[in-house]
Amino acid sequence: MKKIKLIIADDHLLIRQGLRKVIESNSAYEILAETGNGAEVIELVKNHDADLLILDINLPGRGGMDIIKDIKAA
After folding, report:
1. What is the pTM of this model?
2. Ramachandran angles phi, psi of 72, nearest 5°
3. What angle, rounded to 10 degrees, do the helices at 64-73 and 38-47 form?
4. C-alpha 34, offset from chain centre
5. Residue closest to 33 by CA, chosen among 43, 73, 58, 25
6. 22-36 per-position pLDDT tens digit
7. DSSP for the chain?
């Protein structure tokens, strides 16, 4: 069975840790990377072959909606 590969982007460490714990309890998923920095999200998406991005819309600096536009454009 192919695992669903994902990236987590949220500026709250506690949220990222909680998501990681829940996701890792299911063997169908593999976490490739995580970040709390909006500027890093696009680089992580470019450098990893992820199937899914869990993205906080209210990231400081660069908002999630701007990041989504850039990812779609790329």
Report:
1. 0.90
2. -65, -40
3. 30
4. 6
5. 43
6. 999 999 999 999 999
7. -PPEEEEEE-S-HHHHHHHHHHHHTSTTEEEEEEES-HHHHHHHHHHS--SEEEE-TT-SSS-HHHHHHHHHH-
Q: What is the pLDDT of residue 27?
A: 95
Alpha carbons 26 and 37: distance in angstroms, whole number: 26
Residue 21 and residue 12: Cα distance in Å, rounded? 14
| The two structure tokens encoding residue 68 | 């989504």
Residues of the chain with pLDDT under 70: none
Sheet containing 4-9, strands listed edge to edge, beginning at the edge strand earlier in sequence: 29-35, 4-9, 52-55
Place of tokens 């850039």: 70
Question: Which amino acid does the sequence have at 52?
Answer: L
Structure tokens at 29: 């998923």
Quote the radius of gyration of the chain (alpha carbons, Å). 12
